[in-house]
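look at this fold:
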Amino acid sequence: MKDSLHKKNEEYPEREILHTNHTTPKNDSHLIMGPHTLFHPFHTDIPIPDKFNNPFHYKPHPLCILAAEEVQKYLISSEIPTTFKKEIAEGKMFGILVVQDPLKDLGYFVSYGGQICGRNNWEGFVPAIFDYLQPDGYFKRKEAEITNINRHIDQMEHSVKYHNQLTAYNLMKREAEETINEKKEIMKKAKQLRDKQRSEGQLSKSVEQDMIHESQFLKAEVHRTKRLYDTYLDNKKFALEQYRMRITNLKFRRKAKSDALQQWLFNHFFLCNPEGEEHNLLETYRKYYVMTHPSFRPNSSGRKSLLNDIYPPAGCGECCEPKLLQYANLHHLRPISMAMFWWGKSPKGEIRKHLHYYPACESKCRPILWYMLPKK
């Protein structure tokens, strides 16, 4: 099993780290998590690893474990708001990135996946790669527009007037079926009676004529009833269809706005690599498929069409790992080792255990971490 995992992750070989004999002197003080602090310095003589670990397959380095234990103490301390504690108790991934600054001082950063209590800017944790949650920002304004459309759709779909009209239409449709069936049954029985009379003997011309008139009248009565109900039902159905069309148009409008907002997010979500180069999330994500899947290679047929259908999943770039690497790359800090641990309950559909370490996710992280990880 381990051999197959190593083979699967060959595209992320462990990165070598330049050796240094410098470590922060050991003392008895605890690591500090505090307001306005992102770089948390180490006070330890634990040696650094020879290589940067593969985030998709690793054993936590002692430096990461030391940092994680300090973070875990902080998460249960009185410094953490109650709302924060309640939310992470339901399940949250936290990440540790050990780094060296330009002076070779050793420390670490902390991040969490997604948001906590709707925020991505809690003190002591690295910020989001792209802060699109500003209350008056473009994303929140457009999101509010989509929310208003959702509210309008919900109101229309649960409108008492609409449901009364729908009920009236269905009742009339049932009444039409029952009435027409009654008329048909009367016509059927009358025909059976006429057939019986004809089989019993010779009928006078006047009686035969009356039978013909009766047959014509009953058939016409069925047709008149059908036309009458069709007119009633068509009017009610037209009103219902007009109402439903308004709902459908709102749903199309919602999808267009949602797609446009997602595209805007992709285009403004810039990832930084160790060389300081930046590419947006969509470009980086699609390039991964060009590099790793034969069907997306430059000479493959239908490549452009296939690439246009490739989009990052929701939440891509908001995991712990890209947040940590983005901050380190932007500030020219050398990544040393990385680890992620789970806090709280296990989510539905996944197995996650409190305080256990986990690899980076495949669907959201693998297609972008190739760009962000250190190359040496």
